[in-house]
Amino acid sequence: MHQDNRGRIAPRPVRLPRLYPIVDAETLARAEVSLRAFAQELRDAGVTLLQYRDKLGDRDQILRNAAAIAAVFRGVDATLVLNDSPELASLASWDGVHLGQGDGDIANARSLLPRNCIVGYSTHTPQQVLAADAAGADYIAIGPVFATATKQNHEPVVGLDGVRSARSLTTKPLVAIGGIALDNAASVIEAGADSVAIIGALFQKGVRSGDLVHAFAKAMPAAQRQ
Predict the structure, then answer these.
(1) What total number of domains does the chain contain?
(2) Domain extent for 88
(3) Which residues are catalytic?
(4) Rounded percentage of the chain residues whose pLDDT exceeds 70
(5) In the predicted model, is pLDDT for residue 4 greater than 70?
(6) In a domain, 4, yes or no
(7) What confidence tier does 37 reach under pLDDT thresholds 50, 70, 90?
(8) Average pLDDT in the 214-223 region?
(9) Does the structure show a pLDDT above 50 at 192?
(10) Is 1 a domain residue?
(11) Where residue 71 sits, what CATH number does that domain have?
(12) Which residues pair with 24 in a beta bridge?
């Protein structure tokens, strides 16, 4: 549980695992996969960081699903991040929030979250990377790295050069997102990302999502221990 000391910055640098699954409500619905069953697959595969994203659900639905995911991960040393809303992240007693460019500023999110919560921020240009760094994001997401069908009306593809550029502009943990698959995940890490966020790549007909988590872990160089 969090100590409710709001408005303070995260007390220590954030270290990210290589894999950052995003549990996306729309993707689950299209795949006809139970949220609880999917969360259990991730937990059993050793996932220690995940984000829940629900762009269409109302407040009650988001909190209900967040509680279901938290129940699955109870007793596991995992970081749970809610998309878009610091208020709902706080109400759900989750560990952080991920903000997009239109979701408000980092300082306001800090004021709504307990002290130990993290704030991640999406960026698509060098200028946005610099702004997120200066504003104190705990980690910075860059993308879309490759073309993606998961998110409609997404920003222009930044490519591996965009990842390299972002890496040169910040020392914050860097998350790459957008079109990342088993055959390109290693190249994204080699370009400078600390972690890759994946959504649709965890859904393949006839393959368990947990097995895909293990496959991604094997496909990427191991994170350096500090």
Answers:
(1) 1
(2) 19-219
(3) 53, 122, 151
(4) 91
(5) no
(6) no
(7) very high
(8) 94
(9) yes
(10) no
(11) 3.20.20.70
(12) 53
